[in-house]
Amino acid sequence: MLSFYDEIELPTGKSFEVIDITDQINRIVERSALKEGLVTITSLHTTCALAVNENEERLFDDIRNYFLTIAPEDQPYKHNDLHLRVNIPPDEPENAHAHLIAMMLGNSETLMVHNGSLVLGRYQSVLMLEMDGPRQRKCAVQVMGRS
């Protein structure tokens, strides 16, 4: 089995944002030259998540509204009591809600690679969900398989 590793770096522009990263992953799969196998994408942050779903702006609004209803930003989360935590940088945000949402969604996805391409359904895209932006974000991508 062969493997190929790369990273996707992208800036986010909003506090809660959904970004389609399918094209970036496809380019990495192509560069890997692997024809059959798996690709695993992992967010390298605790306040970002990954999901496979439809790339549609109105759905993105629904996703944001749904998760911020479950974990609203303005709740009295203990994680946000920054003055009670140790070794906190001065620019640390109050972001407990973002951690909770990321835990519900998960930080990785594994997809099949067939004939050198991602296997996705008609309306499926790989989405990175930012819950604590804007920030600079990274996702690790590992392609494993055979050429």
TrEMBL record:
Q: Which InterPro entries match?
A: UPF0047_YjbQ-like, YjbQ-like_sf
**Superkingdom of origin organism:** Bacteria
Pfam families referenced in this protein's UniProt entry, alphabetically: YjbQ
Matching entries from SUPFAM superfamilies are given as: YjbQ-like (SSF111038)
NCBIfam families xref list:
TIGR00149_YjbQ
The name under which this protein is listed is Secondary thiamine-phosphate synthase enzyme
